[in-house]
Design brief:
Transferase(Phosphotransferase), domain 1; about 30% helix; single chain; Phosphorylase Kinase, domain 1; 14 helices; five-stranded antiparallel beta sheet; three-stranded antiparallel beta sheet; about 10% strand; 2 domains; alpha+beta; binds zinc ion
């Protein structure tokens, strides 16, 4: 997996720091070309002959090619866009209209995918033309095709340098800052939901569990969130209310996993998950457990008093420098109100080199002219206004939501490109439509019920 080299280091750092030479001088060394990791799903063939059909047909068929992944909700295949020959990913959202809950969940995810405009967040490039509403059962979303994900990369034998870790963590936090600024909690940040292409560009994906943050602390939120290894202690302890800091906890776990190439807290059960966390962080104070349920607090109080053993993080790898461990310890904070935010984490010096590399040769927000690189004025943009989930309040029946979603998809396509639809005659279509949601074992495990 190739990472580009870095040029104009001083100029870039000067731009970022408003001309502060102190920081520019902080990173005078060269960046090495990173070892190339062969991505598992690269395709180079294009179907240029299909490009010329635009003017002949009001709609274009696309054919599914091969399955590339399984999210919490839905199946992803790679396809070729006949309009430009580009390979893209096609996600089928199946069984959408089974009941009102799944209708709402899918509509929320669809709205989010169409709302996102950020390089480190996967968004919808297109939605396939729906059939007449009487035959409308499934939704197909086209997104950018990414060759791999962080889980596959971490478990592969490929070398991962500290430059990789820095540029990956930078992009995760950059995407998360944007999501949190939109008022969205992802709630299932894990390596498999962080897609990576062959140039190391990373995009957060799978918004099947994402929702708008709940500002009313009296309102209960579901605990059916976050794959266990990346689950924040407040959720393990049965908190009825949580914030976007649950995503930061997950990022801390992933950061440690990038450094150590192994899962940080790999427990067999939610109780053991909590025990592994307190082994590292020590017994939490009563204050840090204030939102926990009584049974969970009793479990901690009954147990032995533990001292924090944070220096063990230095043994993750030789890449666990003082700066890396310092930032990691700001993410792995038991008390969610004291955990660092995505915005503040991005200001940590550990991420300076990742920012530099990203904006020197990976981003789309800066560009190069004959006289050099022109940097964006805002390296980590936020979004205004926030994502509005007010539309969910008035959804009360399956048929009604179906009509609203049908209309929404048609509106998305208005005036843009030739609409795409799936080719039901193709051989691949049969296996594509028969593929269903992820197996139960791939779903986030159910939450612990404290006695
Ligand atoms: Zn940029």
């Amino acid at each position: 997996m190739a990472l580009c080299g870095t040029t104009n280091v001083t100029k870039m750092m000067a731009a970022y720091n408003g001309g502060s030479s102190a920081v520019a001088a902080h990173h005078p060394h060269h960046h090495h070309q990173l070892q190339h990791l062969p991505p598992p799903h690269m395709h180079h063939h294009h179907h240029h002959h299909q490009q010329h059909q635009h003017h002949l047909q009001p709609q274009l068929d696309i054919e599914p090619d091969r399955p590339i992944g399984y999210g919490a909700f839905g199946v992803v295949w790679s396809v070729t866009d006949p309009r430009d020959g580009k390979r893209v990913a096609l996600k089928k959202m199946p069984n959408v209209f089974q009941n009102l809950v799944s209708c709402k969940r899918v509509f929320r995810e669809l709205k989010m995918l169409c709302f996102f405009k950020h390089e480190n967040v996967l968004s919808a490039l297109d939605i396939l033309q729906p059939p007449h509403i009487d035959y409308f059962e499934e939704i197909y979303v086209v997104t950018e095709l990414m060759q791999s994900d962080l889980h596959k990369i971490i478990v592969s034998p490929q070398a991962l340098s500290s430059d990789h870790a820095k540029v990956f963590l930078y992009q995760i936090l950059r995407g998360l800052k944007y999501l949190h600024s939109a008022g969205i909690l992802h709630r299932d940040i894990k390596p498999g939901n962080l897609l990576v292409n062959s140039n190391c560009v990373l995009k957060i994906c799978d918004f099947g569990l994402a929702r708008v943050e709940e500002t009313d602390e009296a309102r209960h939120m579901t605990q059916e969130v976050v794959t266990q290894y990346y689950r924040a202690p407040e959720i393990l302890m049965g908190s009825r209310h949580y914030s976007n800091s649950i995503d930061i906890w997950s990022v801390g776990c992933i950061f440690a996993e990038l450094l150590g190439r192994r899962i940080l807290f790999q427990a067999q059960s939610p109780i053991q998950q909590l025990d592994l966390i307190t082994d590292l962080l020590g017994t939490p104070s009563m204050e840090a457990m204030r939102t926990a349920c009584e049974g969970a607090r009793a479990h901690i109080v009954r147990g032995p008093h533990k001292q924090a053993s944070l220096p063990v993080l230095y043994t993750l790898s030789s890449q666990a420098t003082h700066e890396a461990v310092h930032l990691l310890c700001r993410m792995l904070v038991f008390d969610p109100s004291k955990r660092i935010s995505a915005k503040d984490a991005l200001a940590h010096p550990y991420l300076d080199e990742g920012r530099l590399r990203y904006h020197t040769c990976m981003c789309k927000c800066c560009y190069t002219t004959s006289s050099g690189r022109v940097y964006t004025s805002d390296f980590e943009p936020v979004t205004t206004p926030k994502f509005d989930d007010g539309f969910e309040k008035n959804l009360s029946a399956v048929r009604q939501v179906k009509e609203i979603i049908h209309q929404f998809i048609l509106e998305q396509q208005k005036g843009s490109r030739v609409p795409l639809c799936i080719n039901p005659q193709s051989a691949a279509f049969k296996s594509f439509i028969s593929s269903t949601v992820a197996q139960p074992s791939e779903m986030p495990p159910s939450p612990l019920v404290w006695e």
